[in-house]
Design brief:
single chain; alpha+beta; Cathepsin B, Chain A; twelve-stranded mixed β-sheet; two-stranded antiparallel ribbon; 17 helices; 41% helix; 17% strand
Length: 436
Amino acid sequence: MKEINTALLKRFRDAYQKDSEAQVLNAALSQTDLADLAFVPTAAAKLKGPFSVEVKTRGVTSQERSGRCWLFAALNILREKVAEKCEIEQFELSQNYLSFYDKLEKANNFLQMVIDHADEPIKGQLMQYVLRGMSDGGYWCEAADLIEKYGVVPKSVQPETYQSGHTACFVSTVNRLLRKDAQELRALVRAGKDPYERKQAMLAEIYKAECIAFGEPVTAFDFEYRDKEDCLHQDRGLTPLEFYHRYAETDLKHYIAVLNEPTFDKPLNTPIQFHGIENMTGRDMKALNLSQKDLEALCIAQLKGDEPVWFACDAGAFDFRKAGVWDPDSSKIEGLLGGFSIDFEKGDRLSYNASSATHAMLLTGVHFDEDGQPDRWKIENSWGEDVGEKGYFVCSEKYFQDYVYEAVIDTQYLTPDQRAYLKKEPVQINAWDEDY
């Protein structure tokens, strides 16, 4: 049978009408949010409490209605270094400053890829990938590149604007402009003309639009603060790079993205790489694909070293934002909708687009059970203090195993075998096939 016909619909209808439980659930769902009704507070309560290992952090930030989680998480790592060095408790780095350059660099990479691949068919996979355009989203390596190229500044020097925290309209408008620019650049290249003068003019338009929306990025500033002894410190005429090297410098090249993506095209214990339209430098993005057990061990080692862990997960899976919980056992959503199961293997879930890494945050703690195994993880989110425990969340070990896909690890914590894996020839993944 290839089509839905009257007989099939009657069979479905008769079965539903005989199912009194389903009709009761229909009545309940007609008046209540599905996720709220599915929430099991007694299961979530088991995840609350202290942690065996916990890294001190200085409060929760808010990305508002933007997709800059990856940048917030990266800058919050550096924030801790500045705060320790200056002996201050309240401090935040400017996300707006770096996200300005992030968008400009993404526009440049987009336009350059259009020029470099002008002979590719417009409906081919490569050009359709490029024409996705820019987004607020990003990767650890992109954050590291931005920091090393442009430095960082205190948030007080380059504060948020309404547009930096509510980016959907701006990004959508700029993507329309970029796609129009792509048509012009392809025509110039195909006509044998030099496209680079027009490319620079196109970037100038985007720079101006960003200045209007987000403010012109600062080039020099004074850094003034009082330490915990109430002593005033003043450092005048700093550039963003000088501030980074003086107060926040970290050897970002010592960090590597570690994945657990057990898909058919990504063998374990092997480096993978792909070229990303989101990457400002146009270089390939690289990561080491390891087992779930190895990924967790590295996260624990770094937390025990008193350093938070930048990580990426599927934030839409079993998310209870108000309670600040990610946990499959705290949800009865399948039972509410008829009793089916949405559970299948992690690798298959990725391959069939049932899940992906959608959000980046910081791991700041882990709790061990009586056997010494992790059973819950503390998370510093960037959704403000009105959700979770003043903005801090917790995820269960079950969620971590199934829906955490990436962590950024200082290479000092890699085992000798894992260091050897990095020397293997990377597996090249098509950019449009990447899962994180």
